[in-house]
Amino acid sequence: MYRKPGGQITVYDFVLPFGGKLREDNRWVKKATLIPWDEIEEKYACLFPSLVGNVAKPARMALGALIIQATHNYSDRETVEQIRENPYLQFFLGFKEFNTDIPFNASLMVFFRKRFDAEKMSEINEMITLVEQKKKEKEDTGGDDGGNLPSGGGKPPKNKGKLILDATCAPADIRYPTDLSLLNEAREKLEEMIDTLHEPLRDSEKKPRTYRKKARRLYLKAAKNRKPKKQQIRKAVKQQLGFVARDLRSIDRLLSLTGDCVLSRRQQDDLEVIRELCRQQQYMYEQNTHSVEDRIVSISQPHVRPIVRGKAGSGVEFGAKVAISLANGYAFLEQLNWNNFNESTTLQASVESYKERFGHYPEAVIADQIYRSRDNIRYCKDRGVRLSGPPVGTAPRDRVAEREASAEAR
Known about the structure:
Structural class: alpha/beta
């Protein structure tokens, strides 16, 4: 159930128990004025079509708490405590007066994150940009909301502004994966599933043997070796693969007797992931390779993929790859993918998104050399957009000579 809150308050309406008023130049007061809370509330209310049940927290409280947490990297509990102690944070969340009570249970932060996923946050970012753009247009036109088109005829607007493009990897919260540690974790989870499945059958069925002590001992023998040889690791992987395959066969037999209902939802999901993990590890062992399509590097987060970055100290990163554009002080998420992708393919869509947001193409696009493909250069040239970076192709001889002379001089 959702109940729309009253009108948005100002710093003059916020009641402080010790007197005085909030400062207008405070960062949280400024942020509160930038966000179109009323428009967000209308979209947020669509998530609660039912008119019965507990009243949901307002969108300003839910979104504001997520912004506070992301700004300071707080935990869920620490976020709630900071809100309880800080009147500026309470004003940012839409409170009418300072209250020392706990504003909401910390467990609600989980539901807030589900309601404001990446797609909705991107939409909110667009709404904030649109509001600021309209304010700027009114200031430039003296209050006349005439848009971006110039007064003379139907000529397209001139290119203005700069667009900065880049891509990065948002690291996932997982330990560094190895084939051996993944198989050991899978084996331990399967052993717990066997215990769960056998519990209702303990009076009629003999419990399958798992050899868990032996498997653990063999794993530690390889894992505690500071500099194991390649053949030792390969042998340990083969051993753990054997234990995992044996446990999977035992689980299949028990499932035929008990059904899936005995396992929890999380265990059922883990079981499907472990089956695919076992298949991938078996393939890599037989082919003597460390590469496979859609490789699983975490059982709890099977969507995470290894992203090859090729940078010093971090050749491979694990997490989502994101393409980001920066324009007029705002950052926009152009693409998010758990699989690796060539960021140069996002340039044209980013430029078109810039035109849709601001009514004109950028004057210049500042990006790394990887964005300077022939197709992108041709695209920018046709639209009068300057793309930063050196020209593609072989450098002229005089330029090569200059580089060689400069290198010798150093």
